[in-house]
Amino acid sequence: MNNEHVIVVDLGFGDAGKGTIVDWLCRDGERSAVVRFNGGAQAAHNVVTDDGRHHTFAQFGAGTFVPGVPTHLAHSVLVDPFALAGEAEHLESIGVGDVFDRLTIDERALITTPWHRAANHARELARGGDRHGSCGMGIGETARYALAHPDDALTVGDCRHPRTLHRKLRAMRERLGTSDWAPDDDAPARGVVDPPDVDDVMEVLGLFAGTVHIVDGGHVGGLLERGPVVFEGAQGVLLDEWAGFHPYTTWSTTTTANAMSIVAEHGHRATRLGVVRTYTTRHGVGPLPTEDDSLTALLPEPHNGTGPWQGAFRVGHFDAVAHRYALAATGGVDALAVTHVDVVNTAGASRPGICDEYRTQDGMPWVPVPPHGHDLDRQARLADTLTSITPVIREAPETGVEWLDEVSALLDVPVAVASYGPTAAAKRRMNG
Amino acid sequence: MGSGAWSTNVYSAAKAYRSRTGKSAFAYSDSMSGTNRVDWRVHDSLDPARANIRESRDSDEHPTSQAISVIFDVTGSMGSIPRTLQTKLPGLFGLLLRKGYLAHPQIMFGGIGDATCDRVPLQVGQFESDNRMDDDLGNIFLEGGGGGQRTESYELAMYFMARHTSMDCLEKRGRRGYLFLLGDEMAYGHVKASEVRDIIGDDVTEDIPLTDIVAELRTKFEVYFIVPGGAYHGRDQTITKFWRSLFGQNVIVLDDLAAVCETIALTIGLNEEAIDLAEGLEHLTDVGFDSTAVVGKALAPLASSRSIAVTSDSLDAGGALDIPGKAQRL
């Protein structure tokens, strides 16, 4: 992985530790920039520094603690300028003061507004007990609105043009921001939103455009020329809009596809690094076949609390079946980064086990097969089946070293880095 | 699956962004030159897309503000001239005040490139009555590109000045602003709607003929075009003729642009009828400039046009009618 562009994706449902791996990749000075290529402000990539500072990276790249490392938000990212301001303030409060100087954003990236967020809340509320595990940040609504009203979708570049900005914001508030807005024709959700005025939103977006560096699609080519870059994925492959288990997915391509196309477009190559934990987790509702409540209690999650919209953080045994499905869905990776290896060493007999096989109710082995096209009905059936299968769980090796060998064999991918704790100092580069 | 970790409150976001403004300026052009061409971009403070309206306003301190704009070609054909301008123009303000040609000048600087091929085709500062104008000047990016076809996007700058300026000198007192354009090539024949949309952000749907935008511009500004006698195209008669067809006597051929400051100051002095040319040149000597010969040569045609009556010829030429003076005003 020396001196190469690296694409970091999560082979589970998110939260495997992409942030801490991206931070580590930037630490030795080999990687000169972080490029975000999917998702939006709902990302939560936790990084802890050796001197104990902690930040949950959402829109700034997880390499931002390393002085001089810039972040680029590619055209496929959804940008929330409102959350961005808050994130920058927190980074400043812990001594990282030049974050806006180091941030570039593709002018084509879509903007998430408070009205998208309000529409998101209204839609989740209307689902009642049938929630999708949304983060409540309006990401899905941003994508949905852009598909429904392509001419009125708001981009980062629009924020430089007051007249265009005003026109699009007015149309948006009209459609999303009224108090009797209905998420679906047959499921009105009245009175749940308290949307801000167009003028207030306009002011923030104007200030945003005056603060960040807005660039065109050629910028990322320059970054790739200048030195090796880290592409930081958001969420996990098992939440992919087309390959995830519908409807418990995110409205984003979470595989390496976006990053690979950016790299190829500029005539470069990249190493794909898949991140897994020594146990499999999920934040919010949706299938988690190896879930075990006793593990949830055993393994504290310092940075993932219960979210008001997405729900509780859930823990299961290492699910090799699900991760193999993710590997096939993303077209494979070149190496693994394995986090929380310290858990294997410290948890003793109560450590998480390994699932290498699913069985149906009549005892037959069953393997989920990734989709070949865009068929959400098929993915919904898959999600349905996953709730009825039984994972076969066996005991995991007692030491971290053995465990790494075993997981490498199970997924048929070499392990390039193992993480024994939250900081960069707790990472070990593996041979091979 | 992530979370909403950071506040998305509209009001705190506005506060957070606002607290970041007012950062100090830096040597923008030099910092940009060290980067890849794909990263070249207009400095935020000079971005026409963010400018909306550039205003020159009266204040208690400056009750009779007079707007002056100096916009120069920053493309490669100008050689090192843009850098010379960047060093010389800060003196303009002092020169105007010292001899009392104007009581309250407000100066705006800008840069012109080629919208068909440059990364930064138009840069526009603010009208300032203090050293903030130096910051704008320092932030002008000297791209040095250009297309080599003897045309630059002057018409885009004219469009901006015609449609995106608002000046108390004109609106309150009927006195147009001054606009000095400096360059060595010709303008394109039309203001292209697509460029206006992309670079300035106006919803314009049709191209505007150059002569139309010039006419519109001249309702707001007394326009002068300064052609460097020493630049690549400076001695090219086609280019001088081209500008004369638009601005008549207001085209000034200046052999040494190091004297740009004095030339502009004296042009304003002549126009305000504060001086005649001989007096102006004496003033230059008074304040220690040794550029009287070059300035005298450049301004001689203009000065002689002041002393004769307006004729139908000069009407056709398009420039001489705009002899400013105090009489004929909007």
Automatic annotation (TrEMBL), chain A:
Main location group: cytoplasm
Q: How is the cofactor bound?
A: Binds 1 Mg(2+) ion per subunit.
| Species the sequence originates in | Stackebrandtia endophytica
Active site annotated at which positions? 15 (proton acceptor), 45 (proton donor)
Question: Recorded GO terms, molecular function?
Answer: adenylosuccinate synthase activity; GTP binding; magnesium ion binding
| HAMAP family associated with the record | Adenylosucc_synth (MF_00011)
Which SMART domains does this UniProt record tie to the protein? Answer: Adenylsucc_synt
Domain of life of the native organism: Bacteria
Q: Is Repeat among this UniProt entry's keywords?
A: no
Keyword Kinase assigned to the entry: answer is no
Example of a GO biological process term? 'de novo' AMP biosynthetic process
| Residues annotated for IMP binding in this entry | 235, 250
Q: What is this protein called?
A: Adenylosuccinate synthetase
> What SUPFAM superfamilies does the entry give?
P-loop containing nucleoside triphosphate hydrolases
Gene that produces this protein: purA
Pathway(s) annotated for this protein in UniProt: Purine metabolism; AMP biosynthesis via de novo pathway; AMP from IMP: step 1/2
TrEMBL record, chain B:
This protein's source sits in the domain of life called Bacteria
Its name, as the record gives it, is VWFA domain-containing protein
Organism expressing this protein natively? Stackebrandtia endophytica
Q: What is the lineage of its organism?
A: Bacteria, Bacillati, Actinomycetota, Actinomycetes, Glycomycetales
